[in-house]
Amino acid sequence: LLYGSLSLAARTWDGGEAKMQQVADLRSTQTYLRSQISAAYPQRMLKIAEFPLLFTGERDEMRYAAALPPRVAEGGVYYFRLAVVRDGNRSLLVQERMIPDVNALEVPEFRDADRSILAEGVAEVRLAYFGRPAGSAHAVPPSWLEHWDDPQQLPMLIRIDVKAEKGPPWPTLVVEPRRSPAAGCPGWDAVRH
What we know:
alpha+beta
């Protein structure tokens, strides 16, 4: 009886600690993503016609430009990719990053990018973008879209839903980018505003 009670208590304790660690990881990942995506910078490619923004959004992947916190790396604008990738039998929510060459003639790819694992045991990430479809008039009301392909403006809101391999899905995260695309305008004068 004593052995059974101690065994049950140990399993309960270990289960509680694992759950607390999972919740702590979820919170820190969501806090990081909120601060990172809200600081998305409307970086433009300067040598491509129409000066497109470094931002594309798909249902399961997002690419955007933002600054890393100073404690992580040197300053400057980085180009990020957020997606779920398989690594053997593990499913990981990762963020890849690279320094973009804004004078290149094509949008950079993530071939040799640095990778950070944000969370393990993630079955899928589902992204949505609130705004008007590319080329639509201002009279068209904004709505949630599965793809963002407007090269001239950022979405008004970004929604991230994460489904875990085990356990309940994460709480929905909705983030508002703080900067206007005008901040990335090639004619923007930072001194005179």
